[in-house]
Design a protein that fits this description.
The complex is a heterodimer of chains A (183) and B (311). With 183 residues, chain A is α/β, with parallel strands linked by helices. Chain A is 28% helix and 28% strand. Chain A has a five-stranded parallel sheet with strand order 3-2-4-5-6. In chain A, strands 1-8-7 form a three-stranded antiparallel sheet. The mean pLDDT of chain A is 92. Chain B is an alpha/beta fold and 311 residues long. Chain B folds into two domains: 10-133 and 290-307, Rossmann fold, CATH 3.40.50; 136-286, Aspartate/ornithine carbamoyltransferase (Rossmann fold), CATH 3.40.50.1370. Chain B is built from twelve helices and nine strands. In chain B, the strands form two sheets. A five-stranded parallel sheet of chain B has the order 7-6-5-8-9. In chain B, α1 (15-31) packs across α12, α2 (57-68) crosses α12 and α5 crosses α12. Chain B is globular and about 55 Å long. The two termini of chain B are 14 Å apart. The model of chain B is unreliable at 307-311 (pLDDT under 50). Classes of the chains: A alpha/beta (183), B alpha/beta (311). At the A-B interface, loops of A face α1 and α12 of B.
């Protein structure tokens, strides 16, 4: 493989603590869970959205609706590359009038979030959209910022940040992978 | 990103390609249930529907598919096009090429016309039905519909009933079923069987009632009076009695068995009116699947086209 693990920046308990804090911040910002909905971006964003919903339930005692967004058809680079796997988008709630929190694992260029915003708007007109990410690694190419961040991780453009989650990768960790030629 | 940049024949597709189309179509089916049924995916691309043989449903299906992906869909129909003024397919291809289109869907009364067009043009070509040869997107939407209802394709026995000889639907479906591991069975009057059915690789049965209990799917073909020369069976009534799907025959299928038809139906000939409207007849589900499957084909052909090796 061309990549090797360079550093573990978050372990299981760090991820857990960050999600608990974000859940509290979301509820605080929304003044409760009323009118709140979560929308995770596949695949790891939807796992995180499910976990956040669980945390919100623990705090407020109510279940907030959770949806899943696949952005493949909204990418700005469809002409040059295709996602190998296209998943189903499933928004089981009407976004109209709700405060929808988009959830993703890593915020990088911002292009994924731009696509997810377009996808979400096709389902209705939310009263507001917030963004929660586990890791913000910088290098934005669009005027997009996160409202809730688990951890800011300054990176170089040559590195890769990988979020591993139990549901998809058998363990919880955030690691930085170094591209070959750097080590 | 299919293994070919055209979809001219099912034979061009691998098992992986077919699986990819069916999976992608599932995502598009979700879009077709939304209130706003439009995606920005193929914005700025041009799809030309070159239908040199009469067609409403297939052309409309391709047109809707292109429009839901935000591509510009332009229709050339037989009666309105320059071909009736004597233009050759070669000149039509050059003309369309000069208009910088990105994908051409062609329906033509001669087998092989889509292949010829693909060789002459720089853009992707999709076969929308060529003569008595193939109709690949129909077979793909049929697979999608079967899988949606029965949950799998592998190991199923699919009886294709009727005019096998003239049917491009059967031509594509038999090939597609074999690729996904299902067993096609050709059923119909000997006068409407190809002279070498073994070339297709399917079993031939002349008695419909004998095989019905073993079929998972009964696929009724349209009686194509416009293609047949002379009269291949004594009367429409006899055809309906021997080869038509009716309530009694529906009862002879296993309880999970389904009935399909590529449309347009001749009610009372190959399918009775009560069966056509039965919940076990998936005719409308096929039409619905057609849009999603054609969206998937267009997406997979036109997306990722600019670079062979993605980063």
């Amino acid at each position: 493989m061309a990549v090797g693990t360079k550093a573990v920046v978050m372990d299981e308990s760090a991820i857990d603590r960050a999600l608990t804090r974000i859940a509290h911040e979301i509820v605080e910002g929304n003044r409760g869970a009323e009118g709140l909905a979560l929308a995770g971006i596949v695949t790891r964003g939807s796992v995180l959205a499910d976990r956040l919903a669980e945390q919100v339930r623990a705090i407020e005692g109510v279940s907030v609706p959770v949806g899943t967004i696949d952005i493949s058809f909204y990418r700005d680079d469809v002409a040059t590359r295709l996602n190998p796997e296209v998943h189903r988008t499933d928004i089981p709630f009407d976004p109209a009038g709700r405060c929808v929190v988009l959830v993703d694992d890593v915020l990088y260029t911002g292009r994924t979030i731009r696509a997810a915003l377009d996808a979400l708007m096709d389902y209705g007109r939310p009263s507001c959209v917030r963004l929660a990410v586990l890791v913000d690694r910088g290098h934005r190419e669009l005027p997009i910022r996160a409202d809730y961040v688990g951890k800011n991780v300054p990176t170089s453009g040559r590195e890769r940040v990988k979020v591993l989650l139990k549901e998809t990768d058998a363990e919880d960790a955030v690691v930085i992978l170094a591209e070959r030629g750097e080590e | 990103m299919l293994s070919s940049r055209h979809v001219l024949s099912i034979a061009d597709l691998s098992a992986d390609d077919i699986a990819r189309v069916l999976e992608t179509a599932e995502s598009f089916a979700e879009v077709n249930e939304r209130r706003i049924k439009k995606l920005p995916t193929l914005r700025g691309l041009t799809v030309i529907n070159l239908f040199l043989e009469p067609s409403t449903r297939t052309r409309t299906s391709f047109e809707i598919a292109a429009k839901r992906l935000s591509a510009d869909a332009i229709n050339f129909s037989a009666s309105a096009s320059a071909t009736v003024k004597g233009e050759s397919l070669r000149d039509t291809a050059a003309t369309l090429g000069a208009m910088a289109c990105d994908l051409v869907v062609i329906r033509h009364r001669f087998a092989g016309a889509p292949r010829m067009l693909a060789d002459m043009m720089d853009c992707s070509v999709v076969n929308g039905g060529d003569g008595m040869h193939e109709h690949p997107t129909q077979a793909l939407l049929d697979l999608y519909t079967i899988r949606q209802r029965l949950g799998k394709l592998e190991g199923l026995r699919v009886g294709i009933v009727g005019d096998i000889l003239h049917s491009r639907v059967a031509g594509s479906l038999v090939r597609a079923l074999r690729i996904v591991g299902a067993t096609p069975v050709l059923i119909g009057p000997a006068t409407l069987m190809p002279s070498r059915p073994d070339v297709l690789g399917a079993d031939v049965v002349l008695d419909l009632d004998e095989v019905l209990p073993s079929l998972d799917v009964a696929y009724m073909l349209r009686v194509q009076s416009e293609r047949a020369s002379g009269m291949p069976f004594p009367s429409v009534r006899e055809y309906a009695a021997l080869w038509g799907m009716n309530a009694a025959r529906l009862g002879a299928l296993p309880s999970h068995g389904i009935v399909m038809h590529p449309g347009p139906m001749n009610r009372g000939v190959e399918i009775s009116a009560d069966v056509a409207d039965d919940t076990r007849s998936l005719v409308l589900q096929q039409v619905e699947a057609g849009v999603a499957v054609r969206m998937a084909v267009m997406y997979l052909l036109l997306g990722g086209a600019d670079s062979g090796a993605a980063a």
